[in-house]
Amino acid sequence: MTDQPKPNSFRTGPDERGRFGLYGGRFVAETLMPLILDLEREYEAARNDPAFHAEMAAYRATYIGRPSPLYFAERLTETLGGAKIYLKREELNHTGSHKVNNVLGQILLARRMGKKRVIAETGAGQHGVATATLCARFGLDCVVFMGAVDVARQAPNVFRMKMLGATVVPVQSGAKTLKDAMNEALRDWVTNVADTFYCIGTVAGPHPYPGMVRDFQSVIGDETRAQMLEAEGRLPDSLYACVGGGSNAMGLFHPFLDDPSVEIFGVEAAGHGLDKLNAASIAGGRPGVLHGNRTYLLMDKDGQIEEGHSISAGLDYPGIGPEHSWLNDIGRVTYLSATDDEAVAAFQTLSKLEGIIPALESAHALAKVIERAPALPKDHLMVLNLSGRGDKDVPQMAELLGTSL
Amino acid sequence: MSTRIDARFAATASEGRAALVTFVMAGDPDHATALKILQALPGAGADVIELGMPFTDPMADGPAIQAAGLRALKGGETLTSTLDLVRAFRAGDDATPLILMGYYNPIYVYGVERFLADAKAAGVDGMIVVDLPPEEDEELCLPALSAGLAFVRLATPTTDDVRLPAVLRNTSGFVYYVSIAGVTGSATPDFDVVAGAVKRIKRHTPLPVAVGFGVKTAQHAAAIARSADAVVVGSALVDAVRGSLDADGRATEKTVSAVTDLVSALAAGVRSARVAA
């Protein structure tokens, strides 16, 4: 599907209908339509209001701890013996991942809109924790929907959310993971239309969410660009980020889309392998409509959605943000995949070589960096988005490695 | 547009009563029993049939219809077998309007043009596709209208007077007013508020207005039938299916009658409404 004409810019989407080429859109029930149109208007107003940006910049600096460093991973680079590897340290953000960048933007928007109650879906719990955190900071009611299976495998984050004052609702429908949590959040929103703001955690959902969440996450790429120019005097040669829904990836990629010298790679979760259970929507799926947007989805031949599988709860989603689907089809971004085993190995490598324990999600992208860096010249500048820290994964890793805590 | 839908609403209007629209899920609890239920509905008093197309992720449905869809999928129901069900029903009933109701993805994957042709040939009169608002009319609504099938739109408590004309523009057959902000089968609506909403919609359209979501009993149906042109009942019927199943989730000899008994009671409620009022 790469026979489409190349656009003049890859950064102008979505169009007024919320489309990135074929993908995106507003596939929601009528009850929600007036709400997402209202959100679109309010976001447009905020986006053009310098006061909104000033407020966001202030909280980024003093509450999240931005800018996050761009760190030269010297031992990893030496060990692999090829490309010069930089890590964008999103795991150092308050709450431990990139998720907070988006949540800050949405919560400030919710406040502008006078909403008192915030709902969110979460998989690994990182978005839920970030949402619970900002709701605590601004005194908003917070309800987080989380699949019952994820509640069991991400117990530390469940407890964190509760300590922050959020209500965690274990979702028992369907496969009891992220997709079902999102269904349940949408059902809650349909029911509580007057006072509730739905804080979606990734670059998916109905327009305006994919573009709005990307905008809030683009601080990652904007900073990386300036930091790399400062460190090396030029742009990076390649970018790597893991992709579930794909918000950390869109945030890193978007500011570089119109720089043809920058090669861009998204890494999906191949689970047990691409020919077995996985969560790689682009590698193993095809276009369909779910959760308000058209995008690549894992589904059967009758259009019934299939369960993803990944060792990482944060990548365990049968879809992907619509802008990624478009970037794939037009060939601007290359989508790779890493298996559970590759991610676990990469997790251990970074921990031992750099003293940084990555989230299992980020370890998927790291696995491809480790695979590709050795064959590249030493002056090749590579950036990995280290989107989250691995503290939450320690119990799961201990179990995998046969250690009881 | 659709002769069966228009004829049926003309007939119920001339009888001075509202129509009873019954929703059941295709393939629930299994394909053969679903056909028996479908065939028994008109005799029990259903004026219009909505046939659910099962989907794994029904974001506007409450627990009852979610469970019905999963029962059907577990039994192997597909969009193809659902169209078979319609064809089998049509072999014995050429008068009762039948509307497919569900979500877009299975249709999109089946292929829009192929779906419309096959649905028309099977004897479908129209469709309600929950996740296709007017903003996405080019996807299915406009092709459906060109193919001679009705596209029934949902209007909701959040659809204000400014938006209502856009919602009604390409609507055909009837308008489905969602009586509550919520999922199917949840809260019971405030009947006075619903009557006001029906009046408001009727100022904008000559089409019949059906009211559903949260209608569970003959009393509810009668209360709605005083102001609306039709009453839609769904969750209560699929719950009746569920209640009739054996411990392994299989149909019993009571399954069909569990549905038809409730439909008869609802039909009596609808028919008594304006006599009593």
Automatic annotation (TrEMBL), chain A:
EC number: 4.2.1.20
Gene Ontology cellular-component annotations: cytoplasm
InterPro entries named among the record's database cross-references: Trp_synth_b_CS, Trp_synth_beta, Trp_synth_beta/beta-like, TrpB-like_PALP, TrpB-like_PALP_sf
Keyword Amino-acid biosynthesis: yes
CDD domains noted in UniProt: Trp-synth_B
Protein name as annotated: Tryptophan synthase beta chain
Species of the source: Methylopila jiangsuensis
Reactions it catalyzes: (1S,2R)-1-C-(indol-3-yl)glycerol 3-phosphate + L-serine = D-glyceraldehyde 3-phosphate + L-tryptophan + H2O
PANTHER family xref list: TRYPTOPHAN SYNTHASE, TRYPTOPHAN SYNTHASE-RELATED
Residue stretches making up the Tryptophan synthase beta chain-like PALP domain: 64-388
Keywords from the named record: Amino-acid biosynthesis, Aromatic amino acid biosynthesis, Lyase, Pyridoxal phosphate, Tryptophan biosynthesis
Automatic annotation (TrEMBL), chain B:
Gene, per the UniProt record: trpA
Name this polypeptide is given: Tryptophan synthase alpha chain
Entry-linked InterPro entries: Aldolase_TIM, RibuloseP-bd_barrel, Trp_synthase_alpha_AS, Trp_synthase_suA
Biological pathway: Amino-acid biosynthesis; L-tryptophan biosynthesis; L-tryptophan from chorismate: step 5/5
E.C. no: 4.2.1.20
Residues annotated as transmembrane: none
Span of the signal peptide: none
UniProt xrefs under Gene3D superfamilies: Aldolase class I (3.20.20.70)
CDD domains, sorted: Tryptophan_synthase_alpha
Family designation: Belongs to the TrpA family.
Organism the protein comes from: Methylopila jiangsuensis
Catalysed conversion reaction: (1S,2R)-1-C-(indol-3-yl)glycerol 3-phosphate + L-serine = D-glyceraldehyde 3-phosphate + L-tryptophan + H2O
